[in-house]
Amino acid sequence: MAQVREQWATRAGFVLAAAGSAVGLGNIWRYPYVAYENGGGAFLIPYFFALLTAGVPILLLEYSMGHRYRGSGPLSYRRMSQKWEWLGWWQAMLAFLISTYYIVILAWAFSYTYFSIGTQWGENTEGFFNHQYLGVTDTFWNFGGLQWKVVLPLAILWGFIYLVMRRGAHGGIERLNRILIPVLIVMIILITIRGLTLEGAVDGLNVLLTPDFSALADYQVWIAAYGQVFFSLSIGFATMMTYASYLPKNSDLSNSGLIAALGNSGFEFMVALGIFGALGYLAAQSGTGVNEVVAGGIGLAFVVFPEIINQFPGLNSLFGFLFFGSLVFSGLTSIVSLLEPGIAAIRDKFDISRKFAVNAVIGGSALVSLLYATKGGINYLDLIDHFVNTYGLLIGAVAMTLFVGWFANRLNTLQNHINQVSDVRIGGWWVASLKVITPVALAAMLAANIITDYQ
Ligand code: PFF
């Protein structure tokens, strides 16, 4: 017998869970360096373009599909056409794959929250983090094997996540978000205010915001913008579809979507201001330019930030604790949303208990996550990340727009559905965008990625 579908307790619970999914490591750890590397202030142009031509339309598409067809990814597609169930599995698999390495970065942040008490990383923050030099001992996470420094944070986090997920959408995910999101907002406001009031902050802001318009001619910048919008808004992974399927029948969709999208971008900009303010401070302290202290990628959060905290004018443990703690909190509310699409998908398919599905999905992800901690494991992490974000996601998103817009031709039905339940009515722009602009833009991105990889 089919089980009764889980439900959020309130609409606010859903909006919080959706925002909690969106706001994550992507906002705090990823956005600042992506914006910096791709035109600074000018990055806002491709960013908003991507948000309007793909981000918001696909977000609403996922909401409306999950809500109307009341299913996880595979079930929602199947209810439109049996032949397209695979696409739901594809998207849920991508979410699962991300969860396997997202947890690793979360575990670094968790360890660093602890290390920030008394700045345990010492003077040489780079040497401390240096995970890529195999065989070097006494580093924080040396990938030389499964040692307690690696396994312990992973085990604690997985244990906690397991307990949350076992309690279900309402008792687990919704409750987690209700508690963590308000705390997270306060933490981020404190970090931003402190970052912006440091000496030299203005120089950091200048570097983040000064537009380099020549970047707009580079198609890589546009790819980066689309990539950032998809990852940050959690779209293209059947996540929002799954979350929307837990909404009661008559729940607003469009207004909730706009709140989640605006909240996510607002959060992203605010954090970037605070972080670049702090980078300006570090540059002033070390007597160099901001460009010299900004390290791209992973290093920004785990090498440069500890250095800033070392030089902080008082209460540095507290600032470190706030920064890394905010990474952990935001990451927790996101990782549950990376696991839920898989859990819901196998429950919908095989009609099994939540307990069984949670054991299978979390057990699987936890096992794979250990792989990245073995010797040379960081290479697998890069490989999977590249596959998911460069190909897997775009293939899924192009297929999704083509299927719903053309093959199954359901956009008008879904538009009516949204307008029946929502406060804010959406117009024909939504259908037009998803039918033409979004697939064309995404297919161009996919082609550009293939050319870049194989030229
Ligand atoms: N949006 C999350 C972040 O910015 O960190 C990551 C994420 C969560 C991506 C859920 C995809 C997803 F389905």
TrEMBL record:
<feature type="transmembrane region" description="Helical">
    <location>
        <begin position="176"/>
        <end position="196"/>
    </location>
</feature>
<feature type="transmembrane region" description="Helical">
    <location>
        <begin position="146"/>
        <end position="164"/>
    </location>
</feature>
<feature type="transmembrane region" description="Helical">
    <location>
        <begin position="43"/>
        <end position="65"/>
    </location>
</feature>
<feature type="transmembrane region" description="Helical">
    <location>
        <begin position="221"/>
        <end position="246"/>
    </location>
</feature>
<feature type="transmembrane region" description="Helical">
    <location>
        <begin position="356"/>
        <end position="374"/>
    </location>
</feature>
<dbReference type="GO" id="GO:0016020">
    <property type="term" value="C:membrane"/>
</dbReference>
<keyword id="KW-0812">Transmembrane</keyword>
<feature type="transmembrane region" description="Helical">
    <location>
        <begin position="321"/>
        <end position="344"/>
    </location>
</feature>
<feature type="transmembrane region" description="Helical">
    <location>
        <begin position="386"/>
        <end position="408"/>
    </location>
</feature>
<feature type="transmembrane region" description="Helical">
    <location>
        <begin position="429"/>
        <end position="451"/>
    </location>
</feature>
<feature type="transmembrane region" description="Helical">
    <location>
        <begin position="12"/>
        <end position="31"/>
    </location>
</feature>
<dbReference type="InterPro" id="IPR037272">
    <property type="entry name" value="SNS_sf"/>
</dbReference>
<dbReference type="Pfam" id="PF00209">
    <property type="entry name" value="SNF"/>
</dbReference>
<keyword id="KW-1133">Transmembrane helix</keyword>
<keyword id="KW-0813">Transport</keyword>
<feature type="transmembrane region" description="Helical">
    <location>
        <begin position="258"/>
        <end position="284"/>
    </location>
</feature>
<keyword id="KW-0472">Membrane</keyword>
<protein>
    <submittedName>
        <fullName>Sodium-dependent transporter</fullName>
    </submittedName>
</protein>
<dbReference type="InterPro" id="IPR000175">
    <property type="entry name" value="Na/ntran_symport"/>
</dbReference>
<feature type="transmembrane region" description="Helical">
    <location>
        <begin position="86"/>
        <end position="110"/>
    </location>
</feature>
